[in-house]
Amino acid sequence: MPLAAALLFLFQNDPAGSAAPGGGAPPSGGAASGSGMSDMVFLVAALIGIMYFVVIRPANRERKRQAELMSSLKKGDRVLLSSGLIATVAALSEKEVMVKVDDKNPLRMRFQKQAIQTILKSDDAAPVEAVEAESK
Question: 52, 85, 111, 123: least buried by Cβ within 10 Å?
Answer without folding.
Answer: 123
